[in-house]
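Quick illustration for those who missed Monday's session on complexes.
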Amino acid sequence: MKKILASEITPETIYQNRRSFMKSAAAGTASVVLGSLFSIPGSANTPSSDKLTRYRDIISYNNYYEFGTSKEDPSENSGKFKTSPWSVSIEGEVEKAKTFSYEQIIKDFPSEERIYRLRCVEGWSMVIPWMGFSLSHLLKTVTPTSKAKFVEFISVYRPEEMIGQQSKILDWPYREGLRLDEAMHPLTIMATGLYGKNLPNQNGAPIRLVVPWKYGFKSSKAIVKIKLVEHIPITSWMNASPTEYGFYSNVNPNVSHPRWSQATERRIGDSFLDPRRPTEMFNGYAKEVSGLYQGMDLKKYY
Ligand code: MTE
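Prediction with MTE bound:
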């Protein structure tokens, strides 16, 4: 078994201590000062009082095909990946295309904590305390034109540093997409960290997308380009297997993947003796997002 380094445990311990402090301070005045940075679980961000997944599980059980297809490949193969310098360009159907350096993003768009459940299409889930900010803030700075209907997210292409990109497992670079209104929804974030620290490479450093009501594969890692477009973009997964992966990919316990049910999930960290948990519609965010899909047949638009 892989040895757990002290440095991998520390952030969680510090974080949990700070969190207990925050809970006790919530009734008092200290929360006014600190509350914006570290909010209380079970409040605005998370649909339930789920326990946070352990830091070491979040950083060692990953999907990141650029670094290999096994769960441990990303943590083992991404150590030398260079995340600095980094920039993100926003272009396409916009009044004013822009390129932001990572430093500029950090300065202009302060990250706050968002505890989201991540439900993978493979049938497992985690509860992750992300640091991030609503993507809408970034998109508003370029002023989408009236033609902009969809948003395409393009991840980095660097086969010399990303061993998985040396084989054709997907059509690189990794591409994902959202409808513009989904991208503008306040729950959709650009994540820059987790457990109060910068994102580890295996989790998508230095900046990634997180869309909590959709299957995990919509949450693209290591984004370098965001393109506003008129027509529905073809994503890497749609291209790889259109009958299995649609454009919407909303978490939906009533629509099975062609090869397995999506009705239940295994929470990472649970014992194999623990029962699988029921999967919730829109991953528990139905109240916030079901309005986006009013009148749509979600079996057809999977
Ligand atoms: N982004 C890129 N660029 N490449 C990938 O292979 N995998 C996706 C998504 N983002 C992936 C990606 C899948 S399938 C999941 S479930 C989540 O990342 C996993 O995120 P995590 O490893 O931080 O838990």
